[in-house]
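FIELD: query
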Amino acid sequence: MPPAPIIICRWGPAIASSSTNHDLFDHWLQRSRHDLHLLLTETADGFVPYAGIPWYVAPFGRDALITALQLLPFEPEIARGTLRYLARLQGTVDDAFTDQEPGKILHEYRRGEMATCREIPFIPYYGSVDATPLFVMLASAYLKWTDDVDFAREMWPAVERALAWMWAMGEAQGRGFLAYARRSPVGLPNQGWKDSHDSVMYADGRLAEPPIALAEVQGYQYAALLGAAAMAEALGRDAEVPALRARARRLQERFEADFWLPDEAFYALALDRDGAPCRVISSNPGHLLWTRIVSDSRAQIVARRLLQDDMFTGWGLRTLSSRERAYNPMSYHNGSVWPHDTALAAVGMREYGMNAQFLTLATGLFEAVLQFDDMRMPELFCGFPRVAGYAPTRYPVACSPQAWASGVVFQLIGAMLGLRPEAADNQITLARPTLPGWLTWIEIRGLRVSKSRLGMRVLQGSDGAAVELLARDGDAELVVRR
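FIELD: result
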């Protein structure tokens, strides 16, 4: 039998490499990087990660954008290709069959007989409420890492169209929230990342009535508005900055007023067509920590709730509390564990300085991936409680590999290091780097900020982690904050 082909990324030297003292963690890193490169497809706009094998070998806006964000510190060219590709296919007309509207970022693009004959709407299809704000988030983050003002200027018209769609949707909804309601007869009934037909419900199990405003999507919108303000400032469009920041501030205030459930001390999964909350405990509010839309005090409350036994299995976070009527640990979105979902909540906890909680979830994910074949993290697994001596129960038809599941380990490393780029100032900060007890050191080489490259080693210390600069190509400054 001939040897398996080696997958080599075209921009090889541009990739930042990572290694640790832990052989198994390094294997997870290598497995994930190989899988991500396997899923990359070269387009006229650059490389774009397809969502997963075998079911989703196609471009998905949401999946590609989150994957690009996970990989941004290590392989920024993925973000560049993804942004160009999605900008080129951004919605331009109002078309009910494909749920397309001007400014929207696509959900999914399929080719073949069914697409050609319009038996399916993925030609492309735009039934995603979150891909558009995620696009703006990625465009802003890419500029923060690279200081590529020319590329930001190229992307700005697409960002403006995305912002215009967000504004129009918020005005139509009445409270500034992004909401969805399917128009296509063959489209998706739910249009957030939990897009199963039964994934948004009331406490009694009934399905929510659209238009539906999901909690996490408002967090994405908040981060997108602040990111767009930073982009506008960098591009010399100072007159637009105050309005964008004011929109973000108003959104945050309305979100707190409408989504917070005082009796549950948690955020609602969603609001329905009448503005009534879906009073169920779900993983969606974990994303709010990632986008920092919530106050410090409520962030602590959310983190504590997520780590209770009905949400945290010991391996990861359930998508839906085991106490809810609709809970099913073997369902796709109503009680299963999605690694990327857990990682976003973990990184969010780290953003608020909750290091112990972050390390609890990061450790759970690492111990979970040890149980899967060749340490390939699947799209999801079942949400049964962890039992000593037993592995996580596999979800029978999960994609494996899957892009944002493969990106989890890189997002966790970025959070461990506390990476804070400021490419415009030629500086990268490591904010309170912290390592789990089972890692002695992490080494990164070729980390790019602006036009410089840095190599560093972060080591366990008696009082937090210590940082050693190994190499510097260029004049970027490395700052360590304790």
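FIELD: remark
The radius of gyration is 21 Å.
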